[in-house]
Amino acid sequence: MHQLKPWIWYLIVSSLTELMERLKSEAGVLVTVESTRGSAPREAGTWMAVFATGAVATVGGGRLEYDAMAHARQWLQQGGGDTLVRYSLGPSLGQCCGGEVVLHFQRVGAADREILRQRLAMPQTPVALFGGGHVGRAVVHVLARLPMTLTWIDSRDEIFPADLPANVVCEHSDPLQAAVADLRPGSRVLIMSFSHAEDLDVVAACLARQREKGDLPYVGLIGSKTKWASFRQRLLARGYTEAELVHVTCPIGMPGIPGKEPEVIAVAVAAQILQVSG
């Protein structure tokens, strides 16, 4: 499957759920961007599903999508096999993109649901969250709605809520940093425990793993610049180099988003995770 941009992940996940529901009761036409040349509104792999009334998702909007939906509905009535249609965005559609898009039209129904679920599903980014406090809970609430598998870790077993989304797994670890060794390769790590001492030990464990395997692309630590300055001196004393410490992001979250409420921090952190996952 083609790699899609992070900012449309949530849209695709929601759209796939809606598509699965609609296909239970009616057939439609799956329209997929097969290829592009030059300037185009969306990249290859983007899809929408067109039904007799309404549609799910988008291949870019404008005249391209208008014509594609009309063609799909006509084709839905007539039946037939898969087909490819080439659109020149400038000359034929009057769009300023000026490129070319090839769309693939495929009739789909209830029998195709499982195949489509696997084909259109977004890749799941592994995230490890250390800390079950107020900010941690807010982060879980936001990240659980995104295409991520979340391992939620705390040294206090009673901290986790009873009801959790399917893509969230809770793990009790005491000491907390012991869980770092078992993280999935490629995990994005968020560190926000109730204890600065625990935070420091988790950061050190992440740096040790990064030194050995280099498979943690993002290590984020909640806190102020003052907190990081203190941690930095302690980590240097433990033998980590300046070059290794650059791998830690502190403070975490996209810059320029004001507010220290847990929900605001969670949104800023989610945006940063999406950015480093692109």
Backbone CA Rg: 23 Å
Number of separate domains: 2
Using the alpha-carbon principal axes, give the shape: elongated
Strand order of the largest sheet: 8-7-6-9-10-11
Q: Which CATH architecture of the largest domain?
A: 3-Layer(aba) Sandwich
Overall CATH class of the largest domain: Alpha Beta
Instruction: Give the name of the CATH superfamily of the largest domain.
Output: NAD(P)-binding Rossmann-like Domain
Computed structural class: alpha/beta
Helix content: 25-40%
Give the H and E element order.
HEEEHEEHEHEEEHEHHEH
Percent of sequence in beta strands: 15-25%
Profile the largest sheet: 6 strands, parallel
The low-confidence parts are: 1-10
Kindly report how far apart the N and C termini lie.
15 Å
Question: Kindly state the mean pLDDT as a whole number?
Answer: 88
| Count of extended strands | 11
CATH topology of the largest domain: Rossmann fold
So how many helices? 8
